[in-house]
Recover the amino acids of this structure.
């Protein structure tokens, strides 16, 4: 089974919602989530090629388990020993017609990524992209005290247009018992 990963967060209702839907249904949660884009608010309007929508219309998932990402950040001295709480999702459960993969490339200028960086979604593609690149880990290991963290800046993203039912996700503790 191939998993996708999502940082655990505040959920209200029975769906994980994209930003634009949070704004309408749960403005308080939206304010918290959109604050992540305060230094680059135009990002939420970036196009999501292949899905015909915008950044604010999709739910973001990672192809990479959080452990190596946060181990690299700990090596840089930027974070302590705290662990991130995350949920997993079986990659087979997403509709490929509503989902794509974005090959993230760290760009300090935060420019929109070109259409060729958005590739078709499949569980096989997720499995092939499940190991972080050495370049991505090295960037995290060598962050200095003034650089922004951006843990997933070089990590492929799975973008799903629209909500995803919460019932499809499992917590990390549930996965550790299986």
């Amino acid at each position: 089974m191939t998993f996708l990963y999502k940082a655990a967060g505040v959920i209200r209702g029975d769906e994980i919602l994209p930003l634009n839907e949070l704004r309408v249904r749960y403005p308080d949660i939206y304010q918290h989530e959109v604050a992540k884009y305060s230094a680059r608010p135009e990002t939420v309007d970036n196009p999501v090629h292949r899905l015909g929508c915008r950044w604010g219309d999709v739910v973001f998932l990672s192809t990479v388990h959080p452990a190596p990402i946060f181990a690299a950040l700990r090596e840089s001295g930027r974070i302590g020993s705290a662990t991130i709480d995350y949920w997993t999702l079986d990659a087979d459960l997403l509709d490929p017609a509503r989902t794509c993969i974005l090959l993230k490339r760290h760009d300090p200028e935060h420019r929109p990524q070109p259409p060729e960086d958005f590739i078709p979604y499949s569980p096989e593609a997720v499995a092939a992209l499940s190991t972080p690149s050495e370049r991505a880990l090295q960037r995290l290991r060598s962050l200095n005290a003034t650089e922004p963290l951006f843990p997933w800046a070089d990590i492929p993203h799975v973008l799903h247009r629209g909500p995803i039912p919460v019932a499809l996700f499992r917590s990390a503790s549930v996965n550790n018992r299986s």
Summary: The chain has six helices and eleven strands. The first helix runs from residue 19 to 25. Residues 173-178 have pLDDT under 50 and may be disordered.
